[in-house]
Amino acid sequence: MPNILVTGGAGNIASALTVRLAADAANHVVVADNLLTGSLRKVPSHLPNVRFVKCDVNRWDDIGPLFFVHNFDFVFHFAAVVGVQRTLANPLLVLEDIKGFENVLKLSKNTGVKRVYFSSSSEVYGEPFEIPQNEKTTPLNSRLPYAVVKNVGEAYLTTFQREYGLPYTIFRFFNTYGPNQTEDFVLPRFVRLAMRGEPLTVFGDGQQTRTFCFVDDTVGACLSAHHRGAFINDVVNVGGAEEITIRALAELVIEVCTSGSELKFLPPLSEGDMTRRCPDVTKMLTLLDRPPITLREGIAKLRDHYAAGH
Questions:
Q1: Is 117 a catalytic residue?
Q2: Which residues lie below 8 Å from residue 87, measured CB to CB, with a gap of 6+?
Q3: The one catalytic residue among 117, 125, 146, 177
Q4: Residues 225 and 295 in one domain
């Protein structure tokens, strides 16, 4: 029975990943989360092969015993302080996550972990030098603390691999959304507002672009890499290929939700709102066994989830 650790498992992506891992009765999944930004209701603790431990990976005394008790085979290190506004308001808290990289990788190296998967971010690219943003050719241009910390995390993984032979895979996530995401993030916020008929707020002129990836595709790509042994010691962009302006996104949400909401424009954010985001998803598409969920389909899934009272 493989023992698998999922840090940050009470968050959006990692909780969905935990559900999929636990669907295989052969897996024993331990979820570690300090519940700073995650929620216990997202953790499938009712499943017999899932165990939740309230734990701060940035504290050695918290995370160390887990490794020595469970002897993990694989680690998905997804714990992080997330959310643009939160990370801008708490930069020192973001920097604390560097201790978590040290702890998790030292413990993984010392206890025979076979592979570490790391949730990096599109933020490491900063303002794009090319579109689409390719894992190898686009220079990393991190400036904000959150982006810099993710970049440091990537450096930790590559360094531990060179020094100790610890295998890794880095996933650079581009705006994953889904039913377990909070309204700190744009799509859940837009859909909730549209369903209530309230104005959708857009920063600046709304011409900044993003792509969005439904959580099923994100998790599907991660698990495919895991099961196939693909992209070992490599980096994979995980995101959508449909580049859309935030204004057009708001209009699409209003259309899909058949809402009477209007757009309300606010001053641009002082920092943290890059002008364009669009990944090269060539690698990711080799991991999926079906076409990605379209943005329109994903918005409809969110709408139906909320309409059902969730």
A1: no
A2: 81, 94, 144, 145, 146, 272
A3: 146
A4: no
